[in-house]
Amino acid sequence: MSGMKDSLAELFGRAPRRPHSDEISAEAHKLHASQKNDPDRIAAIHAELAHAALHKMPQKWRRRRWAVLIAVNLLFVVSYWLDIQLLEGALTGSRFVGFHMADLNSALQVTLAFKHMVLNLVIGTVTVFIMWWLLGGRTFCSWVCPYHLVAEWAEMIHLWLVKKKLVKDHPLDRKARNWSWMIFAVLAIVTGYTVFETISPTGIISRALIYGPGLALVWVFLLLLFEIFYSRRAWCRYLCPIGLTYGLVGATSPFRVRYNLESCFHEGECRKVCEVPHVLDLVIKGRATDLNVSLGADCTRCGRCVETCPTDSLNFKFKGLGDLL
Amino acid sequence: MPKPKPKQKRVVSKRHQQQERRRFLRSAAMTAGVVTVSLLGYIPVVKGWVNRLRPPGALNEERFLASCIKCGQCVQVCPVNAIKLMDLESGFGNGTPYIDARAQACDFSCDGLQCVLACPTGTLTHDLNFPADTRMGIARLANPNKCLAMQGEGFKGQARGADYTGLLRYDEVDRWNPIRVSEHPYDLELCDLCVRQCPIEIRITQCAEVEPVEGKIERVAQKQGNECPPIHAIALEEVDGVMTPVIKEGCVGCGVCEMICPPEPAAIVIDVHPDREERRA
Lengths: 325, 281
What we know:
The structure holds two protein chains of two kinds. Chain A is an alpha+beta fold.
């Protein structure tokens, strides 16, 4: 399975590669060759574009996702403040109507530091593992993680400043995330402290929402400043070990964004809005190996590309369940 | 199947090479920066600033910090809101639970050690069954010259003043709901608040008094027989002709004595024990 190998390699920071011609299916080959000069197709796409311009709701998925993200985090807050015990705890560890849930990266840190796992933590970890495997792994990032939301707002400011030519984005090496994952894993084992949890913006914001704000938010604020003025979405793209953990969980997930080569016009709108644009390199002319290709493990299933694509060439897909909208 | 790829030497311009190197260095610096910031969290731990009263059943400080997942479920179940979470200035302790006994001690009014039951990681160990089994710390008469009993004084009024928001459960007022200490004024000939309000001592008294009564529902824990604390925690005894609070072996370090002590600063305080597990054993 070269697709899985590439998906994992890209998750670990390798640049997407151009496929060899013998990896590309015959149909895809034909399409790659004909796309340049098929007047009917081009006319059809133009018609679709005109239609889309009139009827598209370009923020559809973003709105839904923000609603889900805010609802999940508010459920923690409301559950505690109204004492309804629906979702107790914080994002690092919780109980949903009494059933244990544990954030996979937090559980990993605790297990490496403590070198022991009590049954409740095993139950919580397995439950959450299965849940996020089904839902796509890094789906956690864009649909639940509260830092993701504030980082999206910071990103809007960043992009505005870039447009005004006041700041410049400094793309960094995605392999940095492997280093940070490894370093924090080793630190947990060697020091016996959950070092990463001290600075995890996900945990910090989640606790701040539920138990009240504190000094730790200053650290989150500094991270956001770094992203606004120096490097776009730096924490999520290049540093966060939680993202890598969930990326691995979702590597074989049935829930993906699927790319359709037939309808694609290669405008590249999707890559402009994507938090992890390398997963969308397969929309570049000549890259898709088949008529339908799923995006790699690093994709957060945020739906920005789905709502942005003018030709509906990107869609959510649950293997075995048909198209999701 | 993909064939072994012919190794193509990419022609890379000098400028591109330089850019790549700069990007690598920036990325390395950024990662190093984040790791360094996180490691600053070691300082408060080494300096012992993190050593505070922890909830019942807490493992030894080192194992406690290793295993706590920082979710605050113990905070949520506490009926008197005794448990708070540490902030970033406590470094690796950030997000871990502690008790500020003077502000609000643990009076075991949940009866069942709810925080222990809520803990998903065993950081508050399930090895203990009853309040008397805990060893959070130990009380110490830190300021004898402040102790009202030792001055032969009584106490009349609200133990900590009218504005004090701390809660305690007074069985004779409401068995199930803790009330504000300020709503429960005292009138004592000789101040014995630290002994009178000690949850362990209250339990021992109750156990001594209770005779199984026909038709009356017994408390679940009582049926098990062993929840009655086997050893006293504190007593007012005559030492050198002066009535003095004397701390006994059975003290669990819950902090109620420190909380209720009227003078400022409190005459009696809790010393934290980082090696709580050994004390329990």
